[in-house]
């Protein structure tokens, strides 16, 4: 009969080296499970100790005794460790656990993170470059068709604003496409983005200057057109280095559409002159020309504002498909996008008056009529840019405001009171 001592069973044979030791609890014994506190660590220690007893029963008695002693100590240490871990987890601060979980979540990159993409950037670049090429070609044809050098100078001065505006928009569009193509390599680093955009504009400027010097007649006007075109393209590239890429894309798209509209509107000038009462007198012609110019500027501003709003709405839909949690653009973005074409026209006028000063002075010195014409054209361009700026900004804001819901509707910015709370 096995001897029992205070609830323990002694099954070791007398005379053995492990005879004085108590039997170790079996892994499936309910009593052992209670002793271990139902912890995984204690169960593993019991299994290890049981394995040691079995090894002692089938192997070297001395090794079995050592293994049994070691297993018993391991069991005790495992039980104490498991009990301490359970107490620590039971008394842990839940706020600290939540904070740690939030921190680990924040460290993971969100899906769709990174710089905002520019919808249709490559298409904008192609269209802007095509428009620049068309302006350069038409200017070259007009200059080459002149019978005398004096007429060529006058025609060059008249064509200079169109070439400068096209170069400015082309430089911005190409730089925007290049920065968008770089994507995460540029990222949110403003300095690197600005340098990359300016470099892209420099490429367009050098290409335009090379094409002008290669295809235009070799005279003083050619160098002026080439130099101012290169400067405009570089400045346009620098503009594209702004952080808000979708807003810059809207400005480029609206400006390009405005330039195309102004050229297309020239076909409606003669009917509008008759509509506004142009007659045989000089006064009637001046008044009719003033109203025609204002009508053109007003319609160009409306076109600019609608194109800017439409582009930003398209960019917003694309951003939501890419990342549903993408923040929405605020009203200042629509304001800047609508006013952007007018701002670019003002920048182009500054480039014309600074870089093309020699050509304008040369054309104004031809005759008194040419001097009056150059002054009148310069004033008209400034007025047109201001009209496009304000009308475009107002049109874009009105279009954006029509997309907003009533003030009482819930939105992301004003979620309202939480359920179950009192005001």
From TrEMBL:
UniProt biased composition (Low complexity): 27-78
Keyword field contains Flavoprotein: no
Chain ranges passing through the membrane: 121-138, 158-182, 194-214, 220-240, 247-266, 297-314, 334-352, 385-404
Residue segments, region Disordered: 1-115
Superkingdom assignment: Bacteria
Keywords of this entry: Membrane, Transmembrane, Transmembrane helix
Protein name: Uncharacterized protein
